[in-house]
Amino acid sequence: MGKFRRLLAVLQASDDAGMLMNKLHRLTHAQLCDVSLIRVVYEPLADLNSRHVDVTPALKELALSTAQKELCEDVDECVIDVPGVTCAAMWHSKIWEGTVSAASAQGAELIIKPADTDRRVAHFHTPDDWNLLRHASVPVLLAQPRAWLPVPTVVAAIDVYDPDHASLNGRILAAAHDISLQVGGRLHLVSIFPVLSKWLTEITSVQSYVKLRADVEEEIASALEQLASQHGLETYQAHALEGEPVDAISALTKHLRADVLVLGTKARQGLSGAVMGNTSETLLQALDCDVITVP
Q1: Same domain, yes or no: 80 and 34
Q2: Cα first-last separation, the chain
Q3: What is the block-wise mean pLDDT of the chain (295 residues), using blocks of 10 residues?
Q4: Which CATH number covers residue 126?
Q5: pLDDT reported for residue 262
Q6: CB 90: neighbour CB atoms within 10 A?
């Protein structure tokens, strides 16, 4: 089975409890997992440094105990049970920093969190989501309020043409394979190649364009097969798609009715390390399925 056996789940809103517990159940039902469920709490008044406020420790303790009680109640009210789940409230001024800290302390292999979407603006993610994806050292599953199908479809986005992605491709494939095993899903691998047709009249005839496209598709299929073989994959479906990455991947996930898309975030240094790759960020805003980002 998959390697995601130590999970950290974040539940800030009671409305997300049912969806989150359902997905945790799907992830853990076939194997023994260690699941920690947290709620990040912060009340600025409790950290106020003033001689006029002498109840701040009590206020902090009250805020934490109240949040933990509410979190446990949210879990208890769910019809679906996740054996062995532990609930805790933690104190931090930023949800994403608290989550990253908790994941590190607990040795989590996967963070799962309901996506913070503004219902007035489709697929708009909050700064907490963006920062969590940028700074987490383990894969992060941003869950949408949509149940997985009985046999979920998992899509892994692989860039076979960028040599800098070789290591990242391996991590993406491993994560996609693991999540597919844990939820009993079907695995699809997709790699995108640039639009050839717009250069048709400049570089080739119609006949040779068809041959060129077939050659590219065969090349990608071979690269995906080699990568899959390195990771022990035997059952999967490969896709080589022509187009812009965001448009092509978004169209494929809709066509397949994908439940989960697994993609990588570029690990970069210095100033550029403050942002993820443009493709990853744009995709996150274009999709309505769950997304697992792999650092």
Answers
A1: yes
A2: 22
A3: 84 95 90 92 74 68 93 92 90 95 96 76 67 92 94 95 83 94 94 76 64 88 92 91 90 96 69 50 82 93
A4: 3.40.50.620
A5: 96
A6: 19
Answer yes or no: do 254 and 291 share one domain. Answer: yes
The pLDDT of residue 205: 59
Are 202 and 142 contained in the same domain? no
Alpha carbon distance 260, 141 (integer Å) = 9
Domain that holds residue 168: 148-295
Residue 280's domain is classified under what CATH number?
3.40.50.12370
pLDDT of residue 199: 61
**Distance between CA atoms of 208 and 40, rounded to whole angstroms?**
59
Number of domains in the chain: 2
Q: Whole-prediction pTM value?
A: 0.88
Q: Which residue has the tokens 């800098």?
A: 164
Task: Please give the DSSP secondary-structure letter assigned to residue 47.
Answer: G
DSSP 134-193: HH-SS-EEEE-SSPPPSS-EEEEE--SS-GGGHHHHHHHHHHHHHHHHHHT-EEEEEEEE
Q: Which two tokens stand for residue 283?
A: 């995709």
